[in-house]
Design brief:
Blueprint lengths: L8 H10 L10 H13 L4 H13 L6 H17 L3 H14 L3 H17 L3 H11 L9 H17 L3 H12 L5 H17 L6 H13 L3 H17 L3 H18 L2 H17 L3 H15 L5 H16 L3 H100 L9 H18 L3 E8 L2 H8 L1 H16 L7 E6 L2 E7 L3 H16 L14 E7 H4 L3 H17 L4 E4 L6 E4 L9 E2 L2 E2 L5
Parallel strand pairs: 4-5
Antiparallel strand pairs: 1-3, 1-4, 2-3, 5-6, 7-8
Helix pairs in contact: 1-6, 1-8, 2-3, 2-4, 3-4, 4-5, 5-6, 6-7, 6-8, 7-17, 8-9, 8-10, 9-10, 10-11, 10-12, 11-12, 12-13, 12-14, 13-14, 14-15, 14-16, 15-16, 16-17, 19-20
Length: about 600
């Protein structure tokens, strides 16, 4: 059994260790004493626990049915402690099949759900949870009921349903739980608050930490402090958050629990990087990676991202690329893990809805069958006619729906596409570009705009005819497509003027693309038209860093640089920058403007 794959698995492990059987045996005090001894030492002294369990197994024939049931629960716990989840699941399922006591069904079901959470079998866990939750109101023992509700809160937090997780944890907190359950419930509430993008109450967090400390739960208390640290970072109290995590880092490290230790180091690395302390940030990030190796976790993602940003800030492109790949792989694995959990919830939810619908449909079908038996002979002919009419009607509707859809798609394509070049027309380019810019602004991504105009295009039309000019425009559009990714937007703004909006691209990268595009246009072979002539373009480039996320402003700045390229002799790239203006001609280097009076001149700004 491999733990540490999800951020909340520590709760599952903690709950698995503290479940206590609700059965109370009344005879054979010798066996009772052994059972009580095993219960008392099952987490603190594993070796002695297995010795007592072995002695109980030898005396199983002397035990009452209640004692045997409790022994089987201890046996399932022993399997879990050895990482043997499947035998534990089989034992628990068999117990469920052999008892009809609601409290025992709820208790064994809760332990079974917890086992599924530990082994990441979320579908089975959610299905079992759905079966046992209605029994909670019939459970008299508060401790058993609380641990079952905590398992529900844990599992719902793991699959991303934080409102449900918060709901069940608050049920426990509102029912005067014992210290251990109060500690676990407080953690779940704080985690759910973070998942719901709302700041958890500092008073509640401090109270939870105090309870966890009193219960000698360094893992639970340690992770609760990360919630407090996150809140302080969001409030701008970075120094205070660092001081908190640094103070308790030795305590967390002493637990030997890699996920929480990795969490502390990853958070500290990110915070120190914000403060500009690169050396300390790198040390903590490396420690987080070492502790988190082999896990699919958010701390590992944060650590790799920090190391990538450090390498990039130092100008070490080779190290930055390597770290970025590690960051991308870790982030992809983490997101896939999150999606797997969320998908499991949706599948089980759909299965429950489907079962409900099937029951309803079966009831309706029974009623229909009863009616059909009374009218079958009289309605047989009518039914055949109705079926034929329905088939014809459905076929007709399907045919016309298909025809209408084809017309709609054709009209949509005509409305969005430039008829000559097959790329976006000006209107559709504007719509797509504005949507892309809005998304970039929301996500904090950069965007760049490249505008270019064909040089002396009127001469081509005048000398060789409009057919040759149209051929040139189509070739230019086809060549430009090769420099666009699927997320970029290429459009013909009118005449011989084109534009490319590049998503997530900075000014320097866009300038390189524009230069490559300029070179490619100059290489277009025109002999197939029967004429030999040159196709060149003048390019203007700007980005959201210089011009903001307004399409009109980006177009205005890029257009100014385009005309500047025209005035400087055509067939070149001019770049708009706030601090300096770069001009890249064919085969030339970037030119920088001189400094005047302690500032850089703004051209086209």
């Amino acid at each position: 059994m491999k733990l540490g794959k999800g951020r909340a698995l520590w709760v599952a492990a903690a709950l698995a260790c503290v479940f206590a059987a609700p059965v109370q045996a009344q005879v054979s005090p010798g066996i009772d004493a052994l059972i009580e001894q095993a219960e008392a030492i099952k987490t603190s002294q594993p070796a002695k626990f297995y010795n007592v369990l072995e002695r109980l197994e030898k005396r199983v024939e002397e035990a009452t049915p209640e004692q045997r049931l409790k022994l089987r629960l201890l046996r399932a716990h022993g399997f879990l402690m050895k990482g043997r989840a499947e035998p534990a699941i089989r034992e628990l399922r068999q117990i469920q099949q052999e008892t009809d006591d609601p409290e025992m069904l709820f208790w064994t079901g809760s332990l079974l759900v917890n086992t599924y959470a530990l082994t990441r079998k979320f579908e089975q866990g959610l299905t079992t949870l759905n079966d046992i939750l209605p029994l909670a109101t019939k459970v008299e023992k508060k401790d058993v009921r609380h641990r079952g509700l905590l398992v529900a809160g844990l599992l719902y937090n793991q699959v991303g349903e934080y409102m449900l997780g918060e709901q069940y944890a608050n049920q426990v907190l509102g029912d005067a739980p014992d210290g251990r359950n109060q500690c676990a419930a407080g953690n779940l509430v704080a985690e759910a608050a973070l998942g719901l993008k709302k700041a958890p109450s500092e008073e509640m967090i401090f109270r939870t930490i105090k309870v966890c400390e009193d219960q000698k739960e360094p893992i639970l208390g340690g992770l609760t402090r990360t919630y407090l640290a996150r809140k302080w970072v969001e409030d701008g109290k970075v120094d205070q958050a660092i001081e908190l995590l640094e103070r308790y880092l030795p305590t967390v490290t002493a637990t030997g629990y890699p996920l929480v230790i990795s969490e502390y180091h990853a958070m500290l690395a990110s915070m120190y990087l914000k403060l500009g302390d690169i050396g300390t940030a790198q040390a903590h990030a490396n420690e987080a990676v070492e502790r988190g190796v082999g896990m699919t976790s958010l701390p590992l993602v944060v650590a790799y991202k920090t190391l990538y940003e450090i390498a990039e800030s130092r100008g070490d492109s080779k190290a930055a690329l390597s770290r970025y790949r590690q960051y991308a792989d870790a982030d992809k694995a983490y997101l896939n893990d999150v999606k797997t959990r969320q998908l499991a919830y949706q599948i089980v939810r759909q299965q429950i809805l489907q079962k409900t619908q099937q029951i309803s449909m079966l009831d309706q079908e029974n009623q229909v069958l009863q009616l059909q038996r009374t009218v079958d002979q009289q309605a047989a002919q009518n039914t055949r006619l109705i079926v034929i009419l329905l088939v014809l009607l459905v076929a007709s509707i399907g045919y016309w729906a298909f025809k209408i859809k084809r017309v709609q798609l054709s009209l949509k394509k005509m409305a969005e596409t430039d008829a000559l070049t097959g790329i976006c027309n000006r209107h559709h380019f504007t719509l797509r570009a504005e949507r892309a810019l809005a998304e970039c602004a929301r996500n904090g991504e950069q965007a760049a705009l490249i505008m270019f105009d064909l040089d002396h295009f009127k001469n081509i039309n005048d000398r060789f005819g409009h057919g040759t000019g149209d051929w040139a425009l189509k070739e230019v559009a086809e060549a430009s497509k090769g420099f666009c990714r699927r997320i970029d937007v290429l459009g013909r703004l009118g005449g011989e003027e084109f534009a490319i909006l590049m998503y997530g691209c900075d000014l320097r990268a866009a300038a390189r693309v524009a230069e490559d595009c300029r070179v490619r246009l100059a290489q277009i072979e025109t002999r197939e038209t029967g004429h030999v002539f040159a196709i060149t373009g003048s390019f203007g480039v700007t980005s959201s860093m210089q011009s903001g996320y307004s399409l009109a402003k980006l177009l205005s700045h890029a257009d100014k640089q385009l005309y500047r390229a025209k005035h400087l002799g055509r067939n070149r790239v001019c770049v708009h920058e706030n601090e300096q203006e770069s001009v890249r001609a064919a085969g030339s280097n970037v030119l920088e403007l001189p400094q005047r009076e302690g500032r850089t001149e703004h051209l086209g700004a």
